[in-house]
Amino acid sequence: MTVPASPRPAFASDAALRRGLVLLTLVNLLNYLDRFVVSALVESLKRSALALTDAELGSLMTGFVVVYTLASPIFGTLGDRARRPRLVALGVAFWSAATALSALARSFHGLFVARAAVGVGEAAYGTIAPSLLADYFPRAQRGRAFAVFFAAIPVGSALGYVVGGLVDRAFGWNAAFLVAGLPGLLLAGLILRLPDPPRGASDAAGTEVPVRPASRAVFASVRGGLGAYPGLLRNRPYRLTVLGYAAYTFALGGMAFWMPAFLERVRGVPRAEATVVFGAIVVATGFVGTFAGGWIGDRLLRRTDQAYLWVSGVATLLAVPCAIVVFASASRSVYVPALVAAQLLLFASTGPVNSAIVNVVAPTERATAVALSILAIHLLGDVPSPVLIGLLSDAASLGRAVLIVPVAVFLSGAIWTYAAWRGERS
Fold first, then answer.
1. pLDDT digits (tens, 9 = 90+) for 313-365
2. Which domain holds residue 134?
3. Residue 33 burial (CB < 10 Å; 0-12/13-18/19+)?
4. pTM score > 0.90 for this model?
5. Does 226 fall in a domain?
6. Structural domain contains residue 2
7. Both ends of the chain: CA-CA distance in Å?
């Protein structure tokens, strides 16, 4: 999990940068554990006193993502103007408290509000942390640094399934929310000690922009800072990258939320085994796939500036037939290997596509660019996908509803491949 040494930026030692990467990665792991613990609790919540429908269960993820999406532009603008560690620490503490409070819900509406509130805290972290990492490491190492950071997505998601499933079975769904939420409160204090370098500190000389103090003037500038978003929409490479990312997020969001329930209902896998088996597959394939994608992207960057998009596009297209087999075959000896292959190929895109996003915008707009990408990928991606699959499941069956996932996977791969091809020609 180490990033090779490079010329040390003046603002911090190599050891401090590595510690920053490790801490941000650890918090990202908790971020996704918290986000997907509810997926492990779907069947328990459905059969509990809350008696939730599939549409209501899907809306728990959708409600979170809507708030997360709408809050992201505000935090993105603040992240390009204020001291980033303070904003990140505030966000981590807020989302952790909201997760713990989910354990006290006594109705669908109470649980919905608690899960939606998690989105406010995660918006602060999700928009700002990548901009910090982009200033910690130079362009030639960002694919690997981002691979380390985003490897926390499959690991955290898997832990959400595994920890949520095991705690649910032993102590109930209420305890699972407490276990997911409380550790983040401890990490929030450590984030305050992270270095906050000038914007562009690890880019070409002369591009550095000093950190601005968190003052009334900073917050007053948020309104004016929102004007950066139209300029990003006119950036064609950025626009295509984010559009492909939205289709990718639609597919992964729907699969991540409903896969344990699919294995139990459609394939007849026992509940505890479904969450643990899927979680184990996610953590193994995500860890390997994310690192492989980041390493390959950095290696190919020596040959083409479009390396990150080529890796993302080709790997995602190769995942399409595997995803079809996952949902079409009833044989465990067939669908499990197909699931492993699909997850490996899909996770290979994680580091490269996020590296592509921060590389096609100015250093002073990176948090804003990440915020707009979050807005787009969730608004078009995993805001509609869990609830849409839930509605289709209520109307027909879960086995048919999930067939929408391979279609979205194909769209994402096609868009990224087209974007890389256009970039080569421009």
1. 999 999 999 999 999 998 989 999 999 999 999 999 988 898 888 888 887 78
2. 14-204+232-425
3. buried
4. no
5. no
6. no
7. 35
